[in-house]
Amino acid sequence: MPETSVAHFYDELADDYHLIYSDWDASIRRQGDALDALIGQDRAAVLDCSCGIGTQAIGLALRGHRVTGTDISPRAAARAAREAARRSLSLRTAAADMRRLPFADGQFDTVVCADNSLPHLLAEQDVNAALAEMRRVLRPGGRLLISTRPYDDLLRDRPASTSPQVHGVAEADGGERTVTFQLWHWHEDGEHYDLQHFQLLPEGGEWRVQARRTTYWALGQDRLAGLAAQAGFVDPQWRMPQETGFFQPLLVARAGE
Fold it and tell me: Which CATH number fits domain 3-150+219-255: 3.40.50.300, 3.40.50.150, 1.20.120.520, 3.40.50.720?
């Protein structure tokens, strides 16, 4: 799927993205705390190269890090900057493709690519290009943090859908609820899948349905760790949610000297 389709998917989702969380502010803090513990230094220069609307970037800024956020979606990156400003935080953002990062060599202490963003790249050459760019902008010894879905498990089962998630305040308490779910269609190669993302949003006593489509590559953990090693990262290790407190498995590695 062309990169413009990924940008379009997240441009359309940008205004409603926070509704996939039961409490977005709590998720911001929780994810920022988990990533901060893995960074292991104060006031690190961090690039979040798939910042979306700012969930991880804002969480890390709250922990005192000097964060820059980029995303292929201009609307998502712009919202991240607005959300940071609302919280009196400094967050520089820009629209950029992670395969062509607009930064000098060795500029960052840590690069974050979270929330299953890397698997939007559908061919090995594109993943290689993105990892090479992440390595280039990291100082020697800098930290790489990539999170994906638990693809080793998903490749065994190849699910067709996710369970509906209902968030918001119950009507009995004076609020409104939203419903989010996904349908997955696996390609014949057994590794790529098309995703339909549905949101049911209350509007004027009725439901407004938003349906958006995108495609992912279900990259197994050994394969992604191997590609990271080829790109010049050392000691790639997968850390699981029960260990880190982060909601997805995390590939943690260091930029080689």
Answer: 3.40.50.150
